[in-house]
Amino acid sequence: MSAFTYDTNGDMLAEGVALRTIAQQVGTPFYCYSAAALRAGWQEFADGMRGMNASVCYALKANSNLAVIKLFGDLGAGADIVSVGEMRRALAAGIPGRKIIYSGVGKKPSELMAALQAGIGQINVESSAELETLNAVAGQLGVKADITIRVNPDIDAGTHEKITTGRKENKFGIDIDLARDAFALAGRLPNLKVVGVAMHIGSQLTTLDPYRAAIARVRELIVQLRADGHRIGRFDIGGGLGIVYADETPPSIADFLQVVRRETDGLGCELTFEPGRRLVGEAGVLVGEVILVKPGVSKTFVVVDAAMNDLIRPTLYDAWHDIVPVRQPRPNAATIRCDIVGPICESGDYLAQNRDLPALSAGDLVMIRSAGAYGAVMASSYNSRPLAPEVMVDGTRFAVVRPRPTIDEMLSSERFPPWMEKA
Ligand SMILES: *Cc1c(COP(=O)(O)O)cnc(C)c1O
After folding, report:
1. Of 60, 61, 123, best ligand 1 pocket probe by most atoms within 8 Å of the beta carbon
2. Which of 158, 254, 294, 375 is deepest in the core (most CB within 10 A)?
3. pLDDT of 232-274, one tens digit each?
4. Is 269 a catalytic residue?
5. Rounded distance, CA 102 to CA 79, Å?
6. Yes or no: is domain 104-273 CATH 3.90.1150.10?
7. Residue 316 is inside which H or E element, if any?
8. Contact (CB, 8 A) for 292 and 343
9. pTM of this prediction?
10. Rounded to the nearest whole angstrom, what is the distance from the C-alpha of residue 240 to the centroid of ligand 1?
11. CATH topology for 4-33+281-412?
12. Which of 369, 364, 327 is nearest to 11 (CA)?
């Protein structure tokens, strides 16, 4: 069941609120998130994990709006972060430091220091160099850092090349064949406490086989590491579970958890999951308004006021996002072949190409589905376009959870160098 459906009058709703109503009050383009859909994803994890020694750390990078983080935090989620900025967001949304995991391939000493000072619960280390740096920083602070080492199990996640992370040629984690050496080093460093092993093999996985294979490999490693004398109490499985953009059939969360349960049976590890996309992707949409329609020789261009700066996934990952009119078309309405494009001065500025959509005209609203993950967080103000506001709907209520900045606000942080004449 989608949170975004037409009502009997043919108006697209987000839960109990018409997107047209939000557009009137907030303007376009805007992102809209359904609280019910966010909770539903969380609940699927909670149900599937019953009886397991496991917890969920929401991967903030998919959508780091404070209201979204707080919604999950209030339900009991921890956070998976990749920067001090995200750490500050998690803490500001009320997630305690001990429930925060710090991931990432290039953490600076200043960032590691900030994380230790904030009492971050677990740092996932991705290189021997980082082990040494963290040991030094922890020593300066007089603390012992709880760490896992992220290993790269060399499994092809079968996803887009820009979002696969678990193959030998990717920059992430420590090659599984070198992992024992890294653990040995970690064991010798006095200010580190090894608590477990982490993996994250990619994003938008639509089958479970890569998880199965990767867990089996890491499981073997855990057995070896224990024989080497390490205490491996935690196994961080990472995130990556896919969602529906077009016609994918990603596994259910229940099936995913069942596979993990089976593959880790008897291992005696506390498990951590770091879902991002799966918790927020389908719970969010981007709404834009048609500026004009431009018939071309080979196809028609529908120019909308949402653009690649708002949602870069089509340009960056060749991603497909379903696009529908906010006003329900008549049944059997004729369609035209079109590109939905933004106003930005780049040929790469499109949201969809070669789509057959019912005729649209200036002023019509369109809804871009599955935009809740890696949408607003990847937005920029290229072409000096203000960041699209974010709205959360909960039942019949809605609230702006990040307003659109004014142009004055955008200009206010910039300075002329002192040697330039005052304008
Ligand atoms: C990006 C990331 C995640 C979340 O990935 P999704 O595909 O959004 O679930 C989890 N863990 C780590 C370490 C990541 O880098």
Report:
1. 61
2. 375
3. 999 999 999 999 999 999 999 999 999 999 999 999 999 999 9
4. no
5. 8
6. no
7. helix 313-317
8. no
9. 0.96
10. 6
11. Lyase, Ornithine Decarboxylase; Chain A, domain 1 (2.40.37)
12. 327
